[in-house]
Amino acid sequence: MSVPVTHDDVSVRTRAILARLGVDADLDVPRSHASIVARSPITGGNLASLRTADASDVDAVVADAKAAFAEWSTVPAPVRGGLVRELGELLREHKDDLGALVSIEAGKIVSEGLGEVQEMIDICDFGVGLSRQLYGNTIATERPGHRMMEQWHPLGVVGVITAFNFPVAVWSWNAVLALVAGDTVVWKPSEKTPLTALGVQALFERAAARAGVNPAVAQLIIGDRASGQALVDDPRVALLSATGSTRMGRAVAPRVAERFGRVLLELGGNNAAIVTPSADLDLTTRGIVFSAAGTAGQRCTTLRRVIAHSSIADELVDRIARAYDTLSIGSPLNSDTLVGPLIDAPAFAGFQKAVDAAVADGGTVRAGGARVDEFGEYAYYVQPTVITMPAQTDIVKHETFAPILYVLTYDTLDEAIALHNDVPQGLSSSIFTTDLREAERFLSVAGSDCGIANVNIGPSGAEIGGAFGGEKDTGGGRESGSDAWKSYMRRSTNTVNYSNELPLAQGVKFT
Ligand code: UN1
Fold it and tell me: What is the SS3 assignment for 387?
């Protein structure tokens, strides 16, 4: 166990970081229904009290973003890339501070806080290159003397709603692509992580000043549910990109669809690893432990289910349980900690409920299962938990945002793939095998039904270069790399007649 840190230490450090990042918001507004209280899950103590945006604030911010779009959308894309380059430079300079703030507010261990900022830097680099590669196709036409092509134009205002668990990187995947695409951005972060959002916004505004760009191209709303709702319903918001629970996505999607807006949804996951008899169990155990216990089980890509061949399941569970015994649980600010706290009391209640439900369903707790309570009444640290299950019951099909790993067994690969896909979510997945046929089968159409499918690595920790997102209840959106930028632009198909004739398509005659 690592040494607990005091709330005063955390508080003083937070204020110093915010000052260095250039945050000038009032951090001590009087506490009332109109304030959002920032807290640290490390101790459960409060860090700041911030003014909550009201409906007229949201209206004004969206109006500014819409007005800024008129100019920003006409700036050449490679010049837009210059803004993203400045942002990337500032993130490099302030990586340690922003990473520490992520640790303080989201509870991530030091290297994961830094890793999240690294994702931001990486997507900035990607965005700079992308700003010269917003390619459209030239298409063969059926008419002589004609040329057909497509262009990608900026879309408009992009609303970005983010979750507590990736409080800074998810904004950057969206904002960087949107800005390069010529869109403007309005960000509504989780109420649980307002300070990291203020830190990012302060750096963004500095980047805009350095690049000589109107800072209204990317704005922030510190608000509650009502602010998110206002973005969802605002017809000026052309694309609403929302990361969070499936429940949230189910509420958001029809409302945006009703006004013919676009959505990009990145919702829950229930990610599994199939472990076959040929798997390298050393590597597999390491892959499983990072994916399942890392970030205290609070990634949407966290490994939640292992589907192990019955011939190796016992040995695998023993290895995982032994590895779990060695994981140091404690303050994420201590560099030797591997497992930090859950975000808050409801997250802990969810953990307890899931462990109880799994046991009631016939599960056996093979590691963990309990709270670690020496960090104070309001800090919710739990032991990473492994539960062997007799079947894939309802609780296993449900995403509980906590470090609980359910283990199921199988005898044939068909059975394993059927179990794998028999959950509502479809984000990330993996197979551990050294058998080429099994690996390829898992990656094929007859294998994993997820947006991400990996071989011999766990489901979490995706790089920014690939498209990120998943199917079914995960919402279908793709963010970050590959051609995810297309979601942030509108396609215009253009046909040009450079002849003196007017031949009609499909051979139609009209004379
Ligand atoms: C999330 O948990 O919302 O693949 C995003 C990963 C990270 C992103 C997770 N790059 O685990």
Answer: strand
